[in-house]
Amino acid sequence: MHCPHCGAVQDIPTAALSCVCPKCNRSMQMEDRCISNYSATTEFSTCGSLAVEKKGTIIVQKKVVAATLALHGALKGEAIVFESAKISSGGQLKGRLKARTLVVEEGATLEGYVEITPNIEHLSVDSPAPGAAAS
Ligand SMILES: [Zn+2]
What we know:
By secondary structure, the chain is an all-beta fold. The protein has a domain at 32-118. It is built from no helices and eleven strands. The strands form two sheets. Strands 3, 4, 5, 6, 7, 8, 9, 10 and 11 form a nine-stranded parallel sheet that branches. It has a two-stranded antiparallel sheet with strand order 1-2. It is globular. The chain starts with 17 loop residues before the first strand and ends in a 19-residue tail after the last strand. The structure holds zinc ion. Zinc ion is lined by residues 3, 5-6, 8, 21, 23-24, 26.
């Protein structure tokens, strides 16, 4: 399980609904989320799964962070998925996607920059603080 804010790996019982990351002290939502209508937001993050239904649209100004992504509808913006992302037939992703694995079904739309890496836990989600890189 990864903190959606700083990317730190957490060992958290899956029964918990939310907790505070010991690394960045920000609260993490653990629940699975499902988008079934039009949703425009600045930022969206969960340690659980994110599903966007066929009629669902999520538009983010900053980024979407989730453990897994199941996209049947539309996502516009930047998405960071710590485990698997899947764009189903009819699904649309426009923007940026960073994920461990990606499945794109026939009939899906994917436009933008895609980065698939098995070492996503080493990628910082937020921009590093000034001076933090020096060690
Ligand atoms: Zn954190």
